[in-house]
Amino acid sequence: MKARLKALLTAAAALSALPLMPVAADAAGNRVSRTWTVRVDRTPPRILPVAPATFSPNGDGVADSAHLAWSAVEPITGSAAVVHGSKVVRAWAISAKAAGAVTWTGTDAAGRRVADGTYTFRVSGRDAAGNPATKTAPLILDRTLGGLRWSVPAFYPNDGDALAPSAKLAFSTTRTAVVTAGIYSGTTLVRSIWTNRRIGAGAHAWTWNGRHQNGTFVGPGTYTLRVIARSGIGTTVLTRDILVDAYAVSLSAASVKAGQTLTITMTSTEPLAAAPTVTFKQPGRAAVKRTATALGGGRYRVAFVVGKGSAGTAVVTISGRDSRGGTNTTSRPVAVR
Ligand SMILES: [Ca+2]
Ligand SMILES: [Ca+2]
Ligand SMILES: [Ca+2]
After folding, report:
1. Domain end: 141, 167, 202, which one?
2. Is the same domain home to 236 and 310?
3. Residues 254 and 329 in one domain
4. How many domains does the chain divide into?
5. CA of 157 to the centre of ligand 2 (A)
6. Closest-approaching ligand to the CA atom of 325
7. What is the pLDDT of residue 23?
8. How confident is the model at residue 131 (pLDDT cuts 50, 70, 90)?
9. CATH number for the domain including 217?
10. How far, in Å, is the centroid of ligand 2 from the Cα of 219?
11. In this structure, which residues have their CB less than 5 angstroms from ion ligand 1?
12. Alpha carbon of 328 to ligand 2 centroid (Å)
């Protein structure tokens, strides 16, 4: 009986699903039968591995680890692994799970840094019925470009004095690379630095005087340095913002209404001789002027209560005397509802 049932189940498996009708006889010789349907899972589990296209585990705080995630339409048992050619670099066991993720920092199982290059994130496993499946996603480990930074968070060349006249950018490369670098305002290139320049491994720097290509100063604002490095390993893009202005200004709200308190916190780019004055001018109202309070470290704060008046754009103007006697001014719009 057992052997017959097994033979029938095997036949059922071959046909995927079919009515099953085992026949048995009881002690009295009465033949009884039952019918049911066996569903056999012959569908391999669909697995989706997800890896970043590239990452750079060089400790510079940008893309230093790779988030390797996977999901499957049904629970699987197997492994997630990073492989290089035929070599398994790292592996993590999967036990009856339908999703998971690991963080890879570019080291092997012994904790040693692995070489730059193209790796494969491979997820393989079997579903509950034993059907196997494997899916892979490529990822490039590229430490070619790293440590991109500005020497200062802000500079103010526009007033032409000797204070905060420039900012120096620096980065390093671990191999020869073709580098393109430029400074952008949003998506607009305001200053090209290098275009497809071949540079060797080492530390690199360049100083910006806050001017366009044509020699005129850029306007106050936040600018983005973008460095692209191409090598035999891959392409890395790093960006770093810098402020060109007399003050870094933080408003408690971008939009205010009557009765609300607007707090303005500012950091002076250049050393000041005294706390700056701040003027708040609402549409249809006389300007209100206050002296900011020093918070230390070049930071100052002041607050205004928004008066009744027409809606529109109010203007906050900050004005202070720098340590060399020059006047440093900037302004910000504030929407009044
Ligand atoms: Ca990095
Ligand atoms: Ca200056
Ligand atoms: Ca100045």
Report:
1. 141
2. no
3. yes
4. 4
5. 4
6. 3
7. 61
8. very high
9. 2.60.40.4070
10. 13
11. 56, 58, 60, 62-64
12. 8
**Nearest ligand to the CA atom of 145:** 1
Ligand nearest to the CA of 324: 3
For residue 158, the ligand closest to its alpha carbon is 2
Could you say which of 92, 122, 141 is where a domain stops?
Answer: 141
130 and 195 both lie in a single domain: no
Tell whether the torsion through CA atoms of 134, 138, 139 and 142 is positive or negative: positive
Give residue 35's domain range.
2-39
Q: Is the dihedral of CA 58, 59, 63, 69 positive or negative?
A: positive
> One-letter amino acid identity for 248?
A
Question: Is this model's pTM higher than 0.90 or not?
Answer: no
Tokens 């009044």 label which residue?
336
CA 324 – ligand 2 centroid, Å:
10
Residues 137 and 65 in one domain: yes
pLDDT in tens, 218-230: 999 999 999 999 9
> Do 238 and 155 share a structural domain?
yes
pLDDT, tens digit, 9 for 90 and up, residues 236-277:
999 999 999 999 999 999 999 999 999 999 999 999 999 999
| Residues near 262 by beta carbon (within 8 Å), at least 6 away in sequence | 251, 252, 253, 256, 280, 303, 304, 305, 306, 316, 334
pLDDT of residue 21: 56
Of 240, 58, 233, 231, residue with least CA distance to 148 = 240
- How many angstroms does the Cα of residue 148 sit away from the middle of ligand 1? 10
pLDDT at 10 over 50: no
Say how many Å lie between the CA of residue 193 and the centre of ligand 1.
22
